[in-house]
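Lecture notes, part 5. Sequence design as translation. It can be helpful to think of inverse folding as translation between two languages: the language of shapes and the language of residues. The source text, in structure tokens, appears below.
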């Protein structure tokens, strides 16, 4: 199966996450499921944009430094004052930024153009009607649409929702994902290793990749290569997950626990024409979508990049689900297996003022080479027809940051 067909298969499997309302504080990075209408205008009332004096423009029209105008100050209007006495002709109210403009006033003289007086104020400059005023509805009009469905909720969008008085928003609910790593050789980091054992590294890696795209993840880490142990671990979890992601046990050897446990149970195991990450499986087990990733760490993480990440982002309502892709010149020659797309870990350097930058491989193609993945910032995509690329050749690069 081709990479693009398998990507579609996984995307279809995940469908769309249902929507639910969430408190603003828990919406960051989620996608709006419905449009949002403003319940109030912004600003909700005419208010001052400056600390100064609310006056009538006609009363200060002739004021300048040689010919100041002096007005009696009737009252102070700090921000938050809710009952404001009207301004009488020939008087001033001392007003602060964000405080409501008193009825009768039509302009604000900033404090810097005055002597700052409390009982009386000397005003050294004129102010046209509307100066330093923030008018009702200048930003948002009550009843208008302020956010579209599909909007990714970041700081500015959440601030806007709060500013119009909303406590929560309708969002696509993050999928609850169970990451289950299999392998009798796996040991918890921090514990002593016996010969033949390795530290379990896929669960933290896969869980963080999935959290990065908005999943709520739980990990079960040391499931041995034993079908009945696998089922015993999984059975109590199935009710409470939207997606099961397994690692390991899907290739062609003996003791392939995931394959043995889920074959013929709604999960299809496939060879995808890609290196790394060829052995894949997905389907529904007892109603729960399942994606089974190969155990080699690099294969597992590249599989997330190619298949799971876009599927999860799509199910969460994101319009843009792919990594940013650029063209770059190779700094060294590369070979690639024919008949398969290859994704090499690479180091991309943009070149100032040029459309394409340059890229070199970070380590070899081996799917156990995690250190060179950790040093990489991109994947170099090589199509299945290409078997050799010379230094200086142009390639597609998927940027990982
Ligand atoms: P498998 O797909 O189970 O045959 O595993 C392929 C390779 O990846 C083997 O060398 C495993 O030891 C290694 N591997 C599998 N699962 C993990 C894991 N969770 N953490 C680190 N290495 C793993
Ligand atoms: Mg294994």
């Amino acid at each position: 199966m081709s990479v693009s067909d398998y990507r579609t298969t996984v995307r279809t499997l995940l469908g769309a996450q249902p929507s639910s309302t969430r408190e603003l504080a828990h919406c960051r990075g989620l996608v709006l499921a419905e449009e949002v209408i403003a319940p109030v205008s912004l600003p909700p009332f005419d208010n001052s944009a400056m600390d100064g004096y609310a006056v009538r423009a006609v009363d200060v029209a002739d004021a300048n430094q040689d010919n100041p105008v002096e007005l009696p100050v009737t009252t102070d209007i700090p921000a938050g004052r809710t009952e404001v006495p009207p301004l009488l002709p020939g008087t001033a109210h001392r007003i602060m930024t964000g405080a409501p403009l008193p009825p009768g006033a039509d302009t604000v003289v900033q404090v810097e153009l005055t002597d700052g007086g409390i009982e009386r104020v000397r005003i050294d400059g004129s102010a046209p009607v509307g100066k330093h005023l923030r008018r009702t509805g200048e930003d948002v009009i009550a009843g208008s649409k302020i956010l579209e469905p599909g909007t990714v909720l970041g700081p500015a969008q959440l601030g806007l929702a709060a500013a119009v008085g909303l406590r929560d928003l309708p969002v696509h609910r993050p999928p609850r994902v169970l990451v289950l790593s299999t392998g009798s050789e796996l040991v918890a980091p921090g514990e002593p290793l016996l010969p033949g054992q390795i530290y379990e590294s896929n669960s933290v890696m896969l869980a963080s990749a999935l959290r990065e795209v908005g999943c709520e993840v739980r990990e079960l880490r040391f499931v041995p290569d034993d079908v009945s142990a696998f089922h015993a671990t999984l059975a109590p979890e199935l009710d409470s997950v939207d997606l099961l992601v397994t690692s390991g046990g899907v290739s062609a050897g003996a003791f392939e626990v995931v394959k043995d446990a889920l074959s013929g149970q709604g999960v299809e195991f496939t060879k995808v024409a890609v290196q790394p990450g060829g052995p894949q499986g997905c389907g529904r087990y007892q109603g729960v979508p399942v994606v089974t990733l190969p155990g080699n760490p690099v294969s597992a993480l590249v599989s997330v990049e190619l298949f799971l990440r876009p599927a999860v982002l799509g199910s969460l309502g994101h319009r843009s689900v792919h990594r940013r892709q650029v063209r770059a010149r190779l700094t060294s020659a590369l070979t690639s297996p024919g008949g398969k797309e290859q994704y090499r870990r690479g180091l991309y350097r943009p070149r100032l003022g040029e459309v394409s930058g340059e890229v070199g491989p970070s380590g070899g193609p081996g799917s156990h080479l995690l250190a060179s993945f950790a040093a990489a910032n991109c994947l170099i995509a090589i199509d299945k027809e290409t078997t050799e690329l010379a230094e200086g050749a142009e390639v597609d690069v998927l940027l990982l940051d």
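The translated text above is only one of many valid answers, since several sequences can fold into similar shapes. Helices lie at 3-14, 155-163, 202-212, 227-234, 257-262, 297-315, 370-374.
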